[in-house]
């Protein structure tokens, strides 16, 4: 009886001691903050992941080298196949305000009457230059420029410039230089011969205009496969915009003079007739000034030139970027392949 009681008591003491030990472990575990434990676990996992990544990359180093080499070779070949593009520039300054001096003096007194006659008496040379820049960029001016100088073929069909023969080589898939016929294979609404809108967009992409805010100095640049054509077209561009703005001002002055002469015939008031005669005199000065000056809106500071060095492509940059891209693609491909196998 005593032995049975002793065994029973001993059993319950051992069981209670085990529970007490487990509660102590749980209590000790609770003393550790969960964020700290999570950080430690993440650090261990990160170390394992980084090590695994380096191991995968090292094991697949020959595949990475092979893919990178292919991309490097391809980028070099691509860069070498690109034709040279040359850029010519011309630097211009707004013309002086000599022709507008008399009109500006009359602006405060007779501005309303001048406006009725369509006379602009407040524009400065900077404003005229800004207007001329917008005219250069316009679709109407560019399309007329292309048609006037017959440069559509050299604009849209040139493949590259042969330096030894000093001539342009045309894309035979687009234009037949022997038959002088467009042979482009395009879908509707396009036609074999490029439309004026296509020509305008192509010309605009090759031309760049920048204006210095403080001085108003204008720099116009043009890119082309042929350095001579880039220079020639810039010269024509400056010549045509000066002529265009001159013709506009002369036509406006003539219309204004007709209006003012009509008003003179309709009034007998001496003071008004005197004002009208002064305005007519200024219009005559504008016409005379335009006729004697070729650089009407822009004066050439630094004329266009035939570039000797290519502007683009940057073959070294293309090769480096192609090689870097190939290396990155090969590493990503190798890691994706590894983790895909790991999941499966």
Q: Name the average pLDDT.
A: 80
The number of helical segments is 11
Instruction: Spell the H/E element sequence.
Output: HHHEHHHHEEEEHEEHHEH
- Give the termini distance in whole angstroms: 65 Å
Provide the β-strand percentage band.
5-15%
Query: Into how many domains do the coordinates divide?
Result: 3
The radius of gyration computed from the alpha-carbon positions, rounded to a whole number of angstroms, is 40 Å
Describe this structure in words.
The chain folds into three domains: 1-31; 39-82 and 314-344, no CATH class; 86-302, no CATH class. Helix 6 (139-149) crosses helix 8 (196-206) and helix 9 runs antiparallel to helix 10 (270-292). The strands form three sheets. A four-stranded antiparallel β-sheet has the order 6-7-1-8. The protein is elongated. Helix content is 65%, strand content 11%. It starts with a helix and ends with a helix. It has 344 residues and is an alpha+beta fold.
Q: What is shown here, in short?
A:
The protein contains eleven helices and eight strands.
List keywords for this structure.
two-stranded antiparallel ribbon; 8 strands; 3 domains; 11 helices; 344 residues
Explain the layout of strands and helices.
Blueprint (H helix, E strand, L loop, with lengths): L1 H30 L2 H26 L1 H21 L4 E9 L6 H16 L8 H13 L1 H11 L2 H5 L1 E5 L4 E4 L4 E2 L4 E2 L13 H11 E5 L6 E7 L2 H40 L3 H23 L5 E5 L12 H29 L1
Antiparallel strand pairs: 1-7, 1-8, 2-3, 4-5, 6-7
């Amino acid at each position: 009886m005593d032995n049975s009681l002793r065994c029973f008591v001993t059993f319950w003491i051992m069981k209670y001691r085990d529970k007490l030990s487990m509660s102590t472990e749980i209590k000790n575990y609770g003393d550790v903050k969960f964020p700290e434990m999570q950080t430690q676990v993440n650090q261990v996992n990160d170390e394992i992941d980084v090590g695994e990544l380096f191991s995968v990359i090292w094991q697949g180093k020959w595949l990475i080298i092979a893919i990178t080499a292919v991309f490097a070779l391809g980028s070099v070949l691509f860069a070498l196949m690109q034709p040279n593009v040359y850029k010519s520039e011309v630097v211009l300054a707004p013309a002086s305000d000599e022709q507008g001096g008399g009109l500006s003096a009359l602006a405060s007194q007779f501005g309303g009457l001048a406006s009725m006659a369509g006379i602009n008496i407040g524009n400065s040379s900077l404003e005229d230059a800004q207007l001329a820049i917008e005219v250069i960029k316009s679709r109407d001016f560019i399309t007329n420029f292309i048609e006037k100088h017959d440069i559509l073929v050299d604009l849209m069909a040139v493949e590259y410039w042969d330096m030894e023969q000093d001539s342009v080589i045309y894309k035979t898939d687009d234009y037949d230089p022997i038959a002088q016929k467009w042979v482009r294979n395009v879908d509707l609404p396009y036609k074999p011969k490029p439309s004026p809108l296509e020509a305008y967009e192509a010309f605009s992409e090759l031309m760049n205009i920048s204006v210095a805010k403080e001085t108003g100095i204008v720099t116009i640049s043009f890119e082309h496969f042929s350095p001579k054509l880039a220079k020639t077209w810039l010269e024509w561009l400056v010549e045509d915009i000066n002529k265009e703005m001159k013709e506009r001002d002369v036509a406006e002055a003539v219309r204004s003079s007709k209006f003012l002469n009509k008003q003179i015939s309709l009034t007998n008031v001496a003071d008004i007739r005197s004002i009208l005669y002064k305005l007519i005199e200024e219009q005559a000065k504008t016409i005379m000034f335009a006729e004697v000056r070729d650089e009407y809106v822009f004066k050439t500071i630094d004329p266009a030139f035939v570039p000797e060095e290519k502007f683009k492509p940057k073959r070294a940059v293309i090769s480096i970027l192609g090689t870097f891209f190939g290396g990155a693609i090969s590493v990503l491909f190798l890691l994706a392949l590894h983790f895909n196998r790991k999941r499966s």
